[in-house]
TrEMBL record:
Annotated signal peptide: none
Comment block on domains: 2 residues (Tyr-54 and Arg-57) present in a large hydrophobic pocket are probably involved in substrate specificity. They are important for desuccinylation activity, but dispensable for deacetylation activity.
HAMAP family: Sirtuin_ClassIII
Organism the protein comes from: Flavobacterium aurantiibacter
Binding site for NAD(+): 10-29, 87-90, 170-172, 215
Protein name: NAD-dependent protein deacylase
Main location: cytoplasm
Keywords for the protein's UniProt record, in alphabetical order: Cytoplasm, NAD, Transferase
Gene Ontology MF annotations: histone deacetylase activity, NAD-dependent; NAD+ binding; protein-malonyllysine demalonylase activity; protein-succinyllysine desuccinylase activity
Amino acid sequence: MKEKLVVLTGAGISAESGLKTFRDADGLWEGHRIEDVATPEAWQRNKQLVLDFYNERRRQLLQVKPNPAHFALVDFEKHFHVNIITQNVDDLHERAGSSNVLHLHGELRKARSTRNYKYVIDFDGDMSDSNRDDQNHPLRPHIVWFGEAVPELPNAANIIAEADVVFIVGTSMQVYPAASLIDYAPPHAQVHYIDLNPAEVRHIRRKISIHSGKAAEILPALFQKFTS
Ligand code: APR
């Protein structure tokens, strides 16, 4: 039976595709206050600002492609049972061809009803105040905002609890509850942290192997190492 590889990904894995990360210099939040564009209060206060922010990000996403880091994780499926748990709202893992992708923080190319959280549809255009669900309630971006519950968290915790190997890729591990998922990995699991600037992750209370550099270079090299 194949060993289980669980990969926790963050914005850094998509950096080489041309999408900005959040907390690096010149990061996505730099031009915006989180409170203005990514909270339920922001949505109540100024829907158009929130819609504009996500419309712009959706347009950018449609112009970029998966990079060698995303493709390397597809290659790992030849040797491992791979589950990806991503904090990213892009769909680059799916476009690369990964089979099992769980989105903790929602998906940019989907919209959901403001009244019925189960009503979720594909959405690729610009979203406006006039977009409605089948009951004529307004749609909103299918994004988990700061201050909202993370509905996929229990599923993610169950997945990582089964891991033999864990990769943490391109995330500053500063946002909870996503960052706490590593605590669910079993003690025997090997943990590898792959990040351009892994300095932030000292708080992880277990032995980890740190790989400092670009995910698009390190993941293909790790694939060779694991499979040679
Ligand atoms: N390869 C690997 N890592 C990289 C690369 C790269 N090419 N470029 C940047 N990084 C690393 C940075 O060093 C940083 O540790 O990616 C990480 C990005 O961290 P953040 O910008 O904080 O993004 P992330 O951890 O995904 O943010 C988590 O916070 O803003 C919210 O909901 C949003 O899902 C997001 C969550």
